[in-house]
């Protein structure tokens, strides 16, 4: 169905793809893997006509093609679900799904009934129930992801590219998606699947192609592969253990944050918790359980029915995130593109946004040499792959964009950091580095609240875990009780026995 031979791509004098090959058969799910910056998304944008290759051949069903635009690729039967959402926030799900290819009546008017019916059919197939008549900006991140998937399915594509489609989905939602993918595979659709979750690769994929630093490493059948061998192909080295060792609990550690009571406006239980210096406190729970809203309520970024907190024993009220910054609390938001970065700015200015105090020369001036040196050091610390500090953020891969956000906060003088999905879209090699940076931060006596939908991450990194359900905390577990079974029991049933 799809054959790429010797694809090369250069941006200026920098070549980012070095003669990549990819062959995808009809009726198969083909994984495309590699670290952030390996060239996966660039290669797929070439397939879809969004950017043009510098050299190489593209064949669709045996016929050589050259797509000047995305519309030409769609006409040839190619659809893509982008890693970053391509939805217009103030249009409804139906309007987004049929944007620029609206169904019309014989009189040329918009056939809204037909479009709504088609949208309902596709979402029913996905086993997803979401409101169709509200702007997608009011939908959850997971619901927006399903709108993206439904939009691609509405194209009746014979070749479907899914770039990190499961990053925002719960396990049940992922299984729904895989069910649809199996049905499409049985119908002869060729699917290219990009994911950093290796367990998903072994569950749904038939073959794997690996890229490393823009180079083709190899193609293998999933049968007979192991996770260790796959990681070694991706990063060129073995990763023995992603999670750094947890420090021994310190009963004498001071309490840096005490949330005496917090309740969301949408209801739910009144919750309380505390955060000690030197620890990572995990927030676990299903999508919609109130994890992120609770954390944002503390900062005054989300309206709460009540919120009483103490910072270092002093009763405090934070009116907005700027107050949090002044009190030494930083936030790495769930949506890096909308809330964590100014994507049209270069890396240097994004890292400087809340760090200008470090480069001040006198009262009015900035030491630009110091600013550049700081940026280069921070980029090296988290291994941002870019042409340099002046590279625009919107030219980076999703994972490298996340690293820029993390680098900015890790190098600021914060006492508490709230990490909301810190490794979403991050490859396995970079995850280990991010986890070590987090532990280095807490080793300095600072503290982290980590919100994550990945149970292995919650279990491997957290010293204690607050489990959320229906808008509030139903359990706090620690030590040997931090297991997937214990967390999911509390998250799904609200059972509160065995609470530490």
From TrEMBL:
Which Gene3D superfamilies has this protein been placed in? P-loop containing nucleotide triphosphate hydrolases
Q: Which GO terms describe its molecular function?
A: ATP binding
Q: Which UniProt keywords apply?
A: ATP-binding, Cell membrane, Membrane, Nucleotide-binding, Repeat, Sugar transport, Translocase, Transport
Pfam families found in the cross-reference section = ABC_tran (PF00005)
* UniProt domain ABC transporter: residue ranges: 2-238, 253-495
Record keywords: Membrane included?
A: yes
Question: How far does the signal peptide extend, from start to end residue?
Answer: none
InterPro entries assigned: AAA+_ATPase, ABC_carbohydrate_import_ATPase, ABC_transporter-like_ATP-bd, ABC_transporter-like_CS, P-loop_NTPase
Keyword field contains Translocase: yes
Instruction: List the SMART domains.
Output: AAA
Protein name in UniProt: Sugar ABC transporter ATP-binding protein
Q: What is the native source organism of this protein?
A: Paracoccus angustae
């Amino acid at each position: 169905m799809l054959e790429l031979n010797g694809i090369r791509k250069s941006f200026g004098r920098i070549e980012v793809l070095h003669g990549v090959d990819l062959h995808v058969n009809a009726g198969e799910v083909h994984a495309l893997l590699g670290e952030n910056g390996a060239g996966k998304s660039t290669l797929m944008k070439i397939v879809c006509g969004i950017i043009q290759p510098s050299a190489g051949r593209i064949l669709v069903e045996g016929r050589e093609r050259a797509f000047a635009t995305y519309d030409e690729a769609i006409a040839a039967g190619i659809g893509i679900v982008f890693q970053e959402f391509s939805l217009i926030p103030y249009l409804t799900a139906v309007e987004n799904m049929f944007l620029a290819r609206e169904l019309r009546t014989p009189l040329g008017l918009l056939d809204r009934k037909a479009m709504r019916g088609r949208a309902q059919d596709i979402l029913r197939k996905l086993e997803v129930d979401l409101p169709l008549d509200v702007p997608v900006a009011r939908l959850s991140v997971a619901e927006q992801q399903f709108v993206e998937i439904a939009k691609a399915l509405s194209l009746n594509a014979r070749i479907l590219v899914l770039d990190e489609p499961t990053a925002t989905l719960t396990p049940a939602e992922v299984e729904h998606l895989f069910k649809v993918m199996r049905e499409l595979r049985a119908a002869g659709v060729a699917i290219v699947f990009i994911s950093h979750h290796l367990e998903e690769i072994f569950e749904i994929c038939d073959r794997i192609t690996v890229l490393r630093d823009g180079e083709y490493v190899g193609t293998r059948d999933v049968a007979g592969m192991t996770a260790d061998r796959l990681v070694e192909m991706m990063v060129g080295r073995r990763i023995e253990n992603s999670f750094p060792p947890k420090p021994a609990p310190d009963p004498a550690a001071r309490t840096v944050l005490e949330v005496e009571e917090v309740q969301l406006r949408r209801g739910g239980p009144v919750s309380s918790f505390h955060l000690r210096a030197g620890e990572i406190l995990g927030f676990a729970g299903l999508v919609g359980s109130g994890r992120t809203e609770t954390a944002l309520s503390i900062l005054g970024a989300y309206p709460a029915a009540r919120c009483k907190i103490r910072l270092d024993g002093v009763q405090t009220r934070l009116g907005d995130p700027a107050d949090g910054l002044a009190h030494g609390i930083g936030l790495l938001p769930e949506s890096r593109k909308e809330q964590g970065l100014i994507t049209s700015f270069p890396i240097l200015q994004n890292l400087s946004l809340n760090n200008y105090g470090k480069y001040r020369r006198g009262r009015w001036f900035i030491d630009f040499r110091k600013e550049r040196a700081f940026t280069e050091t921070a980029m090296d610390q988290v291994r941002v792959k870019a042409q340099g500090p002046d590279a625009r953020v919107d030219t980076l891969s999703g994972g490298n964009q996340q690293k820029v956000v993390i680098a900015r906060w890790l190098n600021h003088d914060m006492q508490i950091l709230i990490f909301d999905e810190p490794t979403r879209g991050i490859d396995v090699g970079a995850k280990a580095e991010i986890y070590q940076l987090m532990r280095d931060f807490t080793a300095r006596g600072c503290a982290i609240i980590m919100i994550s939908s990945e149970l292995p991450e919650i279990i491997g990194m957290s010293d204690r875990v607050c489990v959320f359900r229906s808008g509030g905390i139903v359990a706090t577990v620690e030590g040997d009780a931090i297991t997937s079974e214990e967390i999911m029991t509390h998250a799904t049933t609200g059972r509160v026995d065995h609470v530490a």
